[in-house]
Design brief:
The structure is a single chain. The protein is α+β, with helices and mostly antiparallel strands and 110 residues long. It contains 5 helices and 5 strands. Helix 1 crosses helix 2. Strand 1 and strand 2 form a beta hairpin. Strands 2-1-3-5-4 form a 5-stranded antiparallel β-sheet.
């Protein structure tokens, strides 16, 4: 589910954790193609441009995260000055969370 906008913002240093990034989205602080998105499960597509709302750009917590978090950008996102563009869809190797797919398959096959 790395295509969810909440995950994108966590990856791009706006949220220090995924729950914090989801909260930023839920509060309408994130724009996708210039339109406010307030659903963290919103799925981004190739070519979408993700940015901060004017209100979010002034928030101390977001500025702190941008200034202090040092995360590398994943290969399927392209960084701009104040935005991120989804240049491709994520592949398995882009996911930074250790996942054992076999356990997921076993759980859902019961």
């Amino acid at each position: 589910h790395e295509r969810l906008v909440g995950s994108e913002m966590c990856i791009r240093d706006r949220g220090s954790t995924r729950p914090q990034a989801r909260q930023f989205v839920n509060h309408g602080l994130i724009l996708v193609d210039g339109k406010r998105v307030d659903i963290a499960s919103f799925r981004v597509k190739r070519g979408h441009v993700i940015s901060l709302s004017p209100k979010a750009k002034e928030m101390i917590q977001i500025q702190h995260n941008i200034d202090t978090l040092d995360r590398s950008l994943v290969g399927w996102l392209e960084a701009g000055e104040k935005q991120v563009t989804v240049r491709d869809l994520p592949q398995r190797e882009h996911i930074d969370i250790p996942v054992r797919e076999q356990l997921i398959v076993e759980l859902y096959s019961k």
